[in-house]
C-alpha cells in the first residue's frame, strides 16, 4: 500500500503512514469541536437546572461543594449500598458578595463535601448544616473583610425534630451572638450562650400545641424524650472554633497527623461520670454506659426529662490555623463508632492527593474549562462518600453524616497563581 508522508522537515526521512492512521488522525482533529459542543450543551443544561432551583426541595442525603466562581452547577446521582439509597448533589456556587465589600483571595469559601445517609436505621435522624460566609467581620481597619464559615452535624435521638430545629436555627443564633461580641468576641462565651438559647427554644417547642404531628408524640405528649447532639465548626482566616455537645466529633488533619478537636461526651468518661453523680443522677450499664440506663451520652440539646444530668453546655476549643492543615472532618457517631480518627484522615488525604495529581483538561478560560473546574472540586465530596461507604461496610448500625472541609491554603494560592 502506498504510504502518505506528512509533516517532513528538511533532511529527515519521511515516515510512511497507512490509511488507518490517517483516519485516526482525522477523527482526533474533530475532537476539539466535539468537546466545545459538549461544553455548550452542558451550559444549556445548567441554565435549565438553574431555572428549576427556584423550587426548594428537601433532601437528607446530599453532597455539596462551594467555590468562589461565577457559575452555578448541580448534578444529581443515585447510588445503592447494601439496600440503602442516598441522593448525591454537587453544587458549585458563587459566594454572595455584599455591596462595597473587599474580600481577600485567601478568604474565599473553602471547598467542602457533605454526605448523609440513613444507613441501617429505619428513620433518618441526622441533619447537616453548612453556611459559607455566615458572618462578615464589620471591622474596616483591615485590607479585606473576613468571612466566617459555619459547619454543623446534628445527630438526633427519639425523633428528628430537635436535630432539624438545630439545623434551621443554631447558625442564626450563633451569628446573633457574634454580632453582639463584635471585635471583643469571646468564643467560649458566645458558643455556650448560643447552645443554651437553642436548648431553651427546643424546650419551648415541646410545651407548644403543635399543628404538625410528630412520631415522637406517640410515646410522649410533650416530646421530652427527644434530643440531639451537636458538633459545629466556625472557620475564620486565623482560627478553627469547634463546639461539641454529645458524641459527634471533629477531627483536624495537620501534616498527616489526626488531631481530635472535640471529646465525646460519654457517660463513663471520668469527669462526666462525676458530674452526673454530683447532680444526683446515675450511670447504669445497659448495653453500654447510659444516663439512668437510658441515654448513651451525657450532653445533648433537648432531653428535658433527663435534666440536670444531661446538659446542653458545649465544650469549646479554639485552634490556630496553620499552613500544614490539610482537612477538617465533622461526623456523627455512625462514622466514629467503626472508623478511627487516623483512618478517616488517611481516606481524606488519599482523595485530596488524587485530585492534586490530576492534570486540568483545558487551561482556564478555554472552551470546556467549566467541566475541568468541576472535576477539580470533587475531592472533598469523594472523601465524604468514601467515609460513609466505609462505615456501612464495617456494619455501622447508625445514621452516618460526614462533612469534609479542605483547609490547604498553599494549594488555593497556587491555583490562584495559575489562573492569574
From TrEMBL:
- This protein's superkingdom? Eukaryota
| Regions of compositional bias (Basic and acidic residues) in chain numbering | 69-81
User: Might you name a Gene Ontology BP term for this protein?
Assistant: negative regulation of abscisic acid-activated signaling pathway
- Segments carrying the region annotation (Disordered) are 1-23, 37-101, 356-375
Q: Which residues form the PPM-type phosphatase domain?
A: 111-407
What stretch or stretches form a coiled coil here? none
EC number(s) per entry: 3.1.3.16
Q: Which Pfam families match?
A: PP2C (PF00481)
User: What CDD domains does its record include?
Assistant: PP2Cc (cd00143)
Sequence ranges of Polar residues compositional bias = 50-68, 82-93
Keyword entries, A-Z: Hydrolase, Magnesium, Manganese, Metal-binding, Protein phosphatase
Name the cofactor(s).
Mg(2+); Mn(2+)
- Molecular functions per Gene Ontology: metal ion binding; protein serine/threonine phosphatase activity
Family membership, please give it: Belongs to the PP2C family.
Q: What name has this protein been given in UniProt?
A: protein-serine/threonine phosphatase
Native organism is: Crotalaria pallida
